[in-house]
Amino acid sequence: MPRPRSTATRITRRRFVQAAAAAAPLTFMFSLPRRVLGANERLNIACVGVTGRGGDDMDGVSGENIVAICDVDARNLAIAAKKEPIKAAKQFKDFRKMLDAMGDDIDAVVVGTPDHIHAPAGLAAMRLRKHLYCEKPLAHNVREIRLMREAAAKYKLASQMGTQIHAGDNYRRVVEIVQSGAIGNINRVHNWVPTSYSGSQTNMKRPAGTPPVPEGLDWDLWLGPAKDRPYHPDYHPFWWRGWWDFANGALGDMACHHIDLPYWALGLRDPLSIESEGPPVDDEMCPKWQIVHYHYPARPEHPPVHLTWYHGGKQPPEFDNPELKLPRWGAGTLFIGDKGMLLADYDKYKLFPEEDFKDFKRPERSIPRSIGHHAEWIKACKDGTPTLCNFDYSGALAEAVLLGCVAYKAGKKIDWDAKAMNCTNAPEANEYLTREYRKGWEL
């Protein structure tokens, strides 16, 4: 069970509802997009977060006009500015000032920052009617994801979440096989990764030291909406993933990639209930390991689905059954049907029992090859073609993923009403759907 939380960090159900209601009608004086592009014209793109994953995303859209780059760390901006397509881009450390200064000159925005900045930057861009590409898990918490989904729909924007493997050919072939009925009706799925983030590599509790802030880093901007705390290298540039204030551990980092496959193949949407187990809950640190059970309702011609997520060295019990002869892949997805099993990872798949599928012929290709994950979004910005990981699809996936953290923190199974965004059997769990925001960073 979770330890009692201090009054300073507790968000009651009433306060959550009030915050959601207050956020819903947020309006500004919007202008229509500055220009309508033809298929051969280039977008003017601003990139928020320009190294690491953000740098990869910046490279993915560098065939367009990158007119602005933004990062709270001047060292990162200096690295990015050395790239030929980026040299002419204007540089900013605060995305708010960037949007104020260049809003009319920007068509679209790419957000590749730590998770706690996704919604502040993404919502600011969408409220100015800028198309948005945003890294997974789309936002820091469930309420933020819902606001992101609603904004993309309200302003009819091209959106794409950074689940790049969705564009991979292997996932498409697996979806075709599953949907062909090759392994029959599927009511059980497992997803797992070995990944683990809890605190940092050196500290399993909030670090006590206060080393100097590196030259060029604006630590206050890096914190953004999170509670104030001294700078420490246990947070920036990498280990922020292990702390609740900034992320959601390995579940938040990896599950959108892997659970994406059964979501796509089985047409999953909103879970009915979620329960999680792991080490004792810590108010500061994400868990080293977690097992999360998601229960989905039946769909037309398909049975209910029980999907289980594992990270931090945990794996499905099927790997301990010598009769199944499953290879111990480090990460992957296991579909279990009434006619067989399909084991898949990013770049490979196998059907089991192998003797039953020795003459198996893969179904005809029905899902075309991707033009590229970033290219899909760029095309959508120009001609309105729907992206496969638009915020309606990927937002539902990301919400489900982060509900695994809600159930873990609540210490009990939660029944989920997606439409009302409410844990119906555990109102006390609703406080974990959102967060407290530092003054000036409210959404």
Question: How would you describe what is shown here?
Answer:
The protein has about 450 residues and is α/β, with parallel strands linked by helices. The chain has two domains: about 15-165 and about 380-390, Rossmann fold (3-Layer(aba) Sandwich), CATH 3.40.50.720; about 165-380 and about 390-440, Dihydrodipicolinate Reductase, domain 2 (2-Layer Sandwich), CATH 3.30.360. The chain has helices at about 15-25, 55-60, 75-80, 95-100, 120-125, 140-155, 170-180, 220-225, 250-265, 375-385, 390-410, and strands at about 45-50, 65-70, 90, 110, 130-135, 160, 185-190, 275, 290-295, 305-310, 330-335, 340-345, 350, 415, 420-425. It has a nine-stranded mixed β-sheet with strand order 13-12-11-7-10-9-8-14-15, with helices on one face. It has a six-stranded parallel β-sheet with strand order 3-2-1-4-5-6, with helices on both faces. Helix 5 packs parallel to helix 6 (about 140-155) and helix 9 crosses helix 11 (about 390-410). The protein starts with 12 loop residues before the first helix and ends in a 20-residue tail after the last strand.
